[in-house]
Amino acid sequence: MIQNENIKTFIKQTLGCTCPDEVFQYINCQSNIRLQDDIVLSRKINIGNRLLIYVIEANNPDSLKDIVPLLVSMGRNERDSLKLNRFRLVMVTDRLDEIKQAADTLFDTVDKDERIHLHVISQDDINNL
Question: How many domains does the chain have?
Answer without folding.
Answer: 1
